[in-house]
Amino acid sequence: MDCLPRNIIIVGAGIAGIACALSLYRELTPFVPDLNITIYERHDILSTSGGAINLTPVAQRHLAQLGVLDELNRMGAEGGAEVNAIELYSMRSGRSIGSIDFVDHDGKGFGGYKGRRVMRIMISMAMMTLVERNPNIDITFGKKVVGGEEMDGKAVVHFHDGSEAVGDLVIGCDGVHSAVRTRWVDPDSPSQYTGMSFLQANIPSNTISSPIHFKSSALNISRHGTMLTSFCDRDQEQIFAAAIVQFDEEDLGLHKFEYGQDWATQNRIRCALRHEIEDRFSKSAIPCIKEIAQSKSDWMLYPVYQVPPGGRWCMNRVILLGDAAHAMPPRDESAAYALDDAILFSRLLVRYRSEPLFEVFDAYERLRRDTINRAFKESGHMWDKNRDMGFLEGRLKEWMMPLRLRSHRDEREAAWEFDASKITLPTPAPSDDLVSLHSFLKERAV
Ligand SMILES: Cc1cc2nc3c(=O)[nH]c(=O)nc-3n(C[C@H](O)[C@H](O)[C@H](O)COP(=O)(O)OP(=O)(O)OC[C@H]3O[C@@H](n4cnc5c(N)ncnc54)[C@H](O)[C@@H]3O)c2cc1C
Fold it and tell me: What average pLDDT does this structure show over 9-26?
């Protein structure tokens, strides 16, 4: 008997939510032609915040499979800048200390894909184009989920405006502060501040008079944090700069732009963030970084939160995917994990289509937990290298970096070959009836 859900609710229109809708459509419609997927997003429109992100070869492969990469490519220059390597520089000496290469020795990408730095809003727009064309997927903006419950064999989602939606399955893709997680699936698993924040700005390249020291993307490291500098458009007109710095939790509220703040408060925040950047990076030996740190750019603060491993991911008719389940300190790979989740979960739903949902959830957890736990540990380790350090520790970090990059190279490159649409999935255990039939036939054969 086919147990596939027909009415699916997805909470959150981020990378995980939309990828999940597209992937479910691809996998399920051969079995459920009248599939009905509704995405509920709390914002009234697609959010333009968040700056640029780096897509690894895995993320690009999965976006290609969902049709998103074609849409990004159609956007021309704004569809992102190709990244062959993230170069690493010492801000103290100005010297190159290695690179994370997205190409092999022959200059080819992994499984055909390299890296790409692209503004988040461009990915959202590319994904939305596909959603709008799809008659089985609906998206409703301005609907903030505040909780949910299960009633009469259905999942019921509650919205801030007092309304409700009912589905056969709810997928919580509502990010690190997920209401589906904290108010439904696992209230004991609130997000935690990592102690580190991003300060981000977009800077027109033609306003920088110093030579630009990187080809497409660079991590410039110092003992006062790391400054990422990257082009995020094909014509290299914009530099995305993001400083990863230690920032006390008590200071977050004082430095965050909020909707409705008066002009004087905004101006005070702007000046304080500029000062923070100047203080940390204006002594850099790299002229371009020095100039960026002394520029009058507007920096935005993004505190980075995480969801510690080990929490619950699912209940009877609800499951968490992407950052809602396992937000980790970003390491250029978190978006890829959200895409893996979406594709693997959709494939498992079909593979287990004769089984109840809890069997699908169980198989999904068995497939994902170890990978996610390992990734979390590794991210935390890398992330820790960005905190403020003393002189000696800072030097040590610089010396050890090339060694660390080299020793993890094979592991990194093997991970970039991962293809969620091809890996072998577990198979459902045979039902008791089948086991009895099998034993009966075996006995008869004897
Ligand atoms: C500063 C920063 C830089 C990063 N850089 C990179 C990078 O370079 N490469 C990379 O791979 N990853 C990066 N990441 C991580 C990556 O952004 C996330 O892993 C990825 O966006 C997760 O996608 P998601 O859809 O799970 O969550 P999100 O992108 O957070 O999407 C969640 C969606 O749910 C909506 N939502 C939230 N609450 C509700 C609610 N109650 N009701 C309805 N809707 C709701 C939100 O508005 C949002 O649209 C970075 C993260 C940060 C914080």
Answer: 98
Domains of the chain: 7-78+116-192+306-385 (3.50.50.60)
- Strands of 265-322, DSSP E: 300-306, 314-315, 318-320
> For the chain, percent helix, then strand, then coil, each to nearest 5?
40, 25, 35
H or E element at residue 195? strand 192-204
Q: pLDDT tens, 229-271? A: 999 999 999 999 999 998 888 777 767 777 677 888 888 888 9
Tens digits of residue pLDDT in 392-445:
888 888 888 888 888 888 888 888 999 999 999 989 877 655 555 555 555 555
Q: Are 37 and 21 in contact (CB under 8 A)?
A: yes
Q: Could you identify the atom of ligand 1 that is nearest to the CA of residue 322?
A: 26
- At 97-115, the pLDDT tens digits run 999 999 988 889 998 999 9
- For residue 324, the CA-to-ligand 1 centroid distance in Å is 9
Please work out whether the CB of residue 57 comes within 6 Å of at least one atom of ligand 1: no
Q: 191 CA distance to ligand 1 centroid (A)?
A: 13
pTM: 0.93
Q: Which of 9, 10, 20, 42 to mutate to test the pocket of ligand 1 (most atoms within 8 A of CB)?
A: 42
Query: CA-CA distance, 199 to 272, in Å (whole number)?
Result: 11
Closest residue by Cα to atom 14, ligand 1, is 330
Instruction: Kindly state if the Cβ of 10 falls inside 6 Å of ligand 1.
Output: no
Pairing of strands 164-167, 85-90: unpaired
Tell how far the Cα of 197 is from the centroid of ligand 1, in angstroms.
Answer: 15
